[in-house]
Amino acid sequence: MELHFIKMFRxxxxxxxxxxxxxxxxxxxxxTKYPFSFKRFDTDGRTIFATLITExxxxxLVEDLQKGxxxxxxxxxxxxxxxxxxGTDNSVAQFWPRGKKGRIVLDPHRKFGKPIDSDTGIPTxxxxxxxxxxxxxxxxxxxEWLGIPIAAVNAAVEFEKSYAA
Length: 165
What we know:
- Helix 3 packs across helix 5 (about 150-165) and helix 4 (about 140-145) packs across helix 5.
- By secondary structure, this protein is an alpha+beta fold.
- It is built from 5 helices and 8 strands, in the order H-H-E-E-E-E-E-E-E-E-H-H-H.
- It has helices spanning about 1-10, 15-30, 125-130, 140-145, 150-165; strands at about 40-45, 50-55, 60-65, 70, 85, 90-95, 105, 115.
- The chain has 2 domains: about 1-85, no CATH class; about 100-165, Arc Repressor Mutant, subunit A, CATH 1.10.10.
- A 4-stranded antiparallel beta sheet has the order 1-2-3-4, with helices on one face. It has a two-stranded antiparallel ribbon with strand order 5-6. A two-stranded antiparallel sheet has the order 7-8.
């Protein structure tokens, strides 16, 4: 999950220096070696923000990890909707790279965290390789062969193309 966070931050335009600084600050702040896997983070494309649960009324603060300043949490939410947190430590349980409607999920408890179609559990790579078999199969034929909806085939192709890019 830590590497997926770093990739998401890079995709949002955050520099490696900003990611490194935020990781070091978060490691010290949260007392864990892999802070991006256990607390909520967000970015505006320049810096990384940590969502802190507090005893204060409202219970949530958002800190700019580069500047050490608190910011308005409602303004800073571009990809939190792609993550599901569970457990008492709020660790990342699932990552939905194309959003929950995009069908693709990375879940460490399913297929070792590889990208899969959320409904069928079939890895996206398997679906795309089935399309490429021989001289290339039609998406409808692959969907029928694997017993999955055509939407799963299309979502896997879109994901694998964007992942390769």
